[in-house]
Amino acid sequence: MKSYLQLARHEGNNTLFETVEMAILSSLWGVPLHLHAEGLRGTGKTTIMRAARDIFPPITRIKGCLYNCDPEKPHCPFHKAMSPQEIAEIGSEEIPMPFLEISHSAKIGTIVGSIDLAKITDSANPTAAILPGIIPQAHRGVIFIDEINRLADTSPELTDVLLDVMGTKPGRVQIEETGLPVVEIPVQVSVWAASNPDEEPGPLEETRRQLADRFDMVIDMGRTHDPDSIAEILKLNSHVRMYEKEVSQDYKAMHQKARKELQNIAARYTNLDLPDFLRNYIARIYVKYDLESLRAIEAIQHAALLNCALKRRDTVLVSDITKAFPLALRHRVDSEILTRIMNSAPDSSSSAVKVTSPFESAAPAREPSAAAAAAAAAAAAQEPAPAQAKEKSFMSPVLSFLGIKGEKENHS
Is the pTM above the cut of 0.90? Predict the structure, then answer.
């Protein structure tokens, strides 16, 4: 499989790349971000999400802890009652940020946890103990589920587990085994998923609406219709095959650079906050359009902060909010309401925009002033098109070095 930076970017997939990078940054901030990519077969949803592991920064855990306990915030049954001195004596280690997958054939014990057979059958010292499943072992990392609409349809018991994991931040899992006390474990894990909504059993919001609402953002994955971009993808695929050995070290170095840059951004912008007038604007959108879920506006606020940080700005702009609207709302409201919300963004062109696709919008316009945005927060009833500022992300220098098209050419 091609590495993350070897994957071609175009107008159909650029939003997924950006959202994946936002989710990695969110994990570094200690906040899970749940993503769901929808689109036609063969558009590369799963490939991009799996390849993102190449730029995952490492995490530090208590040495040997299967639950990935943070030495400063131990949470597992073995370490949560220990003193800082006892934890220091155990030591710590650096490991890659976890990325684990849940298959459709998985059993509850595999996902949540079960009796540790190795310890209970130890002839020298038999001990009844719990072996953590995939979810507890993914703490501080990512769980990926392909074709989640099918999983929600055929495995209701696994879906119920995901509802607990994604219902709060951090989530929780409960391990129950006969003869052992119930173990409840907090989990800080991001759930990433992909599906083809045109295939049975249909879109996730129709299959299991409650689970669909747990996803902070849903990305509509498209394909490029630009022959030049398609030719560039073919050329890249050919060159990867022909020159794989020669370029592998360059890509490894650039992946390391991207990981380090994400860590620097997380540290620099950890205290980034939304101005009150923008928070009031979001609140009035929630009331005016009778949005069902508070998770929606929490996702809008958090996505705006993440986008601002990745653009290396110290101040959140209205364009950060409008960029988050379709990501957080396309699976929660119908297209007519989403169109009206997008058209309510302040201080753009005078013509309204019709949202036929979650990521269609008018041409970029100037960023509204604080006064104009504050007025919009009070009224939230204007009808211009949203502003979309074209700015370089932290990945632009990396992509330029590799000769990959930048954001300006791939703006979606």
Answer: no
